[in-house]
Design goal:
The complex is a heterodimer of chains A (195) and B (341). Chain A has 195 residues and is an alpha+beta fold. Chain A folds into two domains: 3-60; 91-179, H-NOX domain (Alpha-Beta Complex). Chain A is 48% helix and 18% strand. Chain A has a four-stranded antiparallel β-sheet. The longest helix of chain A is centred in the C-terminal third of the chain and has 16 residues, at 140-155. Chain A is globular. In chain B, 41% of the residues lie in helices and 21% in strands. Chain B has a six-stranded antiparallel β-sheet. Chain B has a five-stranded mixed β-sheet with strand order 8-9-7-12-13, with helices on both faces. A two-stranded antiparallel ribbon of chain B has the order 10-11. The chains are: A alpha+beta (195), B alpha+beta (341).
Chain lengths: 195, 341
């Protein structure tokens, strides 16, 4: 697993629960002392071990923890660059959903060895979608559920998202888009970032 | 060209396909502009203006008439709006049918990021086919990744500094460094009935080698000296480089001033044998001073180093290239005596 993914997990645990909790997770999961490095590559096993250790330390179940991770990825100020990159997907939440198939490819444009979940969006009818997710670590749909709910808020859209089962290595999320302009959402200006 | 010679598009369709187009008539006045170009122009009204009042054509050459600009049809143009001369565009012009003027399509070129920020452009201001959005995305992604890389480099650098601070070896000679020598000396002085010798050795004429033959020759000499020192001590003894051309040697289980004297004589004799570097002969010598732990009731590292130092400078004062064993008598005349290098 790419260090960027693991580093996001580490950032979520540190920013949300504090350094002491992270240290406990790190030692339970048998991670290197300095934690994960964004630009290195790690065995997939370590990612799963970290999630299991965090769930044990925090007395949470894996899926609810992963959903919080998804929310964190979109809403935490430390990850504002990531929120911006996601908003490039489309001008509305509807456009954004349509762009999800390209997400992994876009990520590879920036970081060629970054493997993100393989997403496939199926447009069932007018406002109804099913998102199929393929990824080596189970529970990935919980991360997406948290992230997509936060993004719907970000766009000011009203949507209902829920798990839609899994099978054959694919996890599914059902999305009902009720209102694209339900609220004002968060500001996104293409050229707002200073570099 | 083959196929349909001319076809019509409504203005709205043109705006979708080419939101940065500009269309001028036979009278060289602007007939229409795409919505994104209008947005970039801001308050400046483009439609109805004479083309060459608003367009600054820079490459491949300036043009001041419809005829001149249409002569460049199909080639890559570099141009700007006079009202936004800081945002150069890339463009292409084609003639309208029936000598009815021309049609220019523009893109942002490499100034895309500034244009997007300054003119507050949104995703909707670009054609879905336009890759400017991907460029913006890449630019931000690269900045984020570069930020991560810089963090990693900073962490590695501080780890390296820590490692260097904790190192026990002199990088050039492979001898122990000051830190390692201090630690061993402390251990030795803390042993009950400590019996060991300490020798402080300083090269003579090393500065001359460095100054006349250069630092590479100096480094060569230091490496050569380190080899000799290593050969001349027993296994278990310590040889440390504690300064530029200063060395400290610790001899375990040693309680004999004569032994220290004979070791020093042998060392100095070997160090005086010239070595060659790059065909040049490098000649140095060494002065040394030493002291035994047994002369103190309770030896302390600082005291022993200090006394060996006094003995060393006695050797230097007596004309270099020799060894002095520390003696209380050395203390009196040392006061007020200048120390030669």
């Amino acid at each position: 697993m790419h260090g960027l993914v693991n580093r996001a997990l580490q950032g979520f645990l540190t920013d949300t629960y504090g350094k002491a909790i992270w240290n406990e997770v790190r030692s339970q999961a048998g991670l290197p002392f300095d934690g994960f490095e964004s630009m290195l590559y790690y065995e997939d096993r370590l990612t799963g071990d970290t999630i299991d250790a965090a769930a044990a330390v925090l007395h949470r179940d894996n899926l609810s923890l992963l959903e919080d991770l998804g929310t964190y990825l979109v809403t935490h100020p430390n990850l504002e660059p990531l929120r911006r990159l996601l908003r490039f997907g489309g001008d509305t939440f509807y456009d954004f959903l349509q762009s999800l198939d390209d997400l992994a490819g876009r990520a590879r444009l920036a970081v060629p060895d970054l493997e993100l979940p393989d997403l496939h969006i199926c447009h069932l009818h007018r406002n109804s979608f099913v998102l199929e997710v393929t990824w080596p670590v189970p529970g990935v749909s919980a991360v997406l559920l948290g992230a997509l709910r936060a993004l719907a808020d970000d766009y000011g859209a009203l949507a209902i998202l829920e798990f839609d089962g899994s099978g054959g290595g694919i996890e599914r999320i059902k999305i009902e888009l009720l209102d694209m302009a339900h609220a004002s959402g968060r500001q996104f200006s293409l050229g707002a970032v200073s570099m | 060209m083959t196929g349909v010679a001319t076809f019509a598009l409504e203005g709205g369709a043109l705006d979708v396909l080419m939101p940065m187009h500009l269309w001028f008539g036979a009278d060289e006045r602007v007939v229409g502009v795409g919505p994104t170009l209008a947005k970039i122009a801001g308050d400046e009204q483009l439609v109805g203006q004479p083309l060459f009042d608003i367009i600054d054509l820079r490459r491949p050459q300036a043009a001041q008439s419809a005829e001149a600009i249409l002569a460049l049809a199909g080639t890559r143009l570099r141009l700007a709006l006079f009202c936004r001369s800081d945002l150069p565009f890339r463009g292409v012009v084609v003639p309208m049918p029936g000598d009815q003027g021309g049609f220019i399509n523009l893109s942002l070129g490499v100034s895309f990021a500034r244009a997007v920020a300054d003119c507050d452009l949104t995703l909707n201001d670009f054609s879905p086919c336009d890759q400017t959005i991907d460029l913006l995305y890449l630019r931000e992604a690269n900045a984020a990744i570069a930020h991560e890389s810089r963090n990693l480099t900073a962490r590695l650098q501080s780890a390296r500094q820590n490692a260097e601070a904790q190192a026990l070896t002199d990088a050039l000679t492979g001898l122990q460094n000051r830190r390692a020598m201090d630690a061993t000396l402390k251990d030795l002085t803390e042993e009950p009935m400590a019996r060991f010798g300490l020798m402080h050795l300083d090269l003579d004429f090393f500065k001359e080698v460095n100054d006349t033959l250069g630092h590479a020759a100096g480094d060569h000499v230091l490496t050569h000296v380190a080899g000799i020192l290593r050969e001349e001590v027993r296994k278990g003894d310590v040889v440390a480089r504690v300064g530029g051309d200063e060395f400290v040697l610790l001899f375990r289980d040693c309680d004999d001033p004569e032994l220290l004297q004979s070791i020093a004589n042998r060392l100095i004799a070997r160090l005086e044998e010239p070595t060659t570097f790059d065909g040049q002969s490098c000649r140095i010598s060494a002065s040394a001073g030493s002291v035994l732990a047994s002369r103190y009731e309770v030896p302390s590292p600082d005291q022993m180093l200090n006394d060996a130092d006094i003995a060393l400078y006695a050797s230097k004062n007596r004309g270099r290239a020799q060894h002095t064993y520390f003696d209380d008598e050395l203390l009196a005349p040392a006061i007020g005596t200048a120390r030669p290098n």
